Fold:
Amino acid sequence: MKTVFWIIGGLFACIGIIAIGIVFWIFQKDLNKDNPDYVLQFIKENKDNEQVSLAIHYNQQKWVEMNTKKPLPLASTVKIIVAIEYAQQAAEGRINSQQLVSLEDLQTFYIPKTDGGAHEAWLKQLKQDNKIENNFVSLSEVANGMIAYSSNANTEFLMELLGLENINKVLEQLNLVDHEPLYPIVSSLYIPTQFMKEKGLTKKETLTAMKAMDMTEYRERALSIHEAWLKKPLSNEEKKKSLQTLDMDFQKIWSDRLIRATTADYITILEKLNHKNYFNEDVHKYLDPVMEQLMQNPKNQKWLLHGGQKGGSTAFVLTLAAYTKDKEGNQTEIAFFANNLNRIEQAKLSKNMNSFQLKFLTDEKFRLHVQKELSQ
Structure:
């Protein structure tokens, strides 16, 4: 009987594998196609879902507003705040954008396989461009890597260099009423490991304790870990063991506790960056090269005067903050935040968000269609 069961079970497994293979092939085929309408349809279907928020301004008009007052996790989009403080300190002469930074210092805040390969991709490009000298790079390149490649290690290094207190003052400066304070996001990845060691808990017990932990304690733990790493960085073996702890349950807690803000807050930031009438010229001298790296593409130079963006993602989150001014003078700001996504939604939104942006910027009929569909 056991043998028969195994054979039948094996048969069903084979059929299941074939079926899964076919579904995966169809999904991959669909995913490889650009489909800006998918983004529109997703947003439309989630209008009443407070885990999806969208604000679009076009030529100073509020084109679309949906759940704009709902705070949601920013993921890496929060790095815009760090970039602003970097530019302000550089403009004031408090830091030197050309000062050299040791790659070893950045390594202190790098945990492999937690940033989608961003830090390694940045280092690889620096090597190709011969921008690494004796294991040092310029501070401006560190800031560039934070925005263009979304290096978490670079971000946490800049948090230390610029000072978290100074960075959080930017929230007050910009009057961001619903923006949570920034804290070290890489260091917070180590909280489960620290908690298990400290309390002698199992993974299951730690998971329960983490869910019950309030944000004040969570931020304080992240800060204490950050400060401890400055004195004694984790070894590669310690990083590897910590990574083994971070299953999807712990990743969900980490994702849910990332810094939150609203699209209403971020649309005001984007307007300030786009109109270039809030920060002075000295600040933009340092801020624009960091935020507007898409202008290095000759194709973008043909039709845009300027434009910048920063996206963010986790396994459950996708965010985007983007601004452009084209050569006809049209100005657009887009802030999109989505939380509690499933894997298919996350993958398809990630794939199609760029084509949605591009079509909105270049196709008047599509712009009007978006406005009509999302105002109903």
User: Anything to note?
Assistant: The radius of gyration is 22 Å. The chain has a mean pLDDT of 92. Residues 1-32 form one domain. The chain has three domains: 1-32, 34-74+261-375, 95-259.
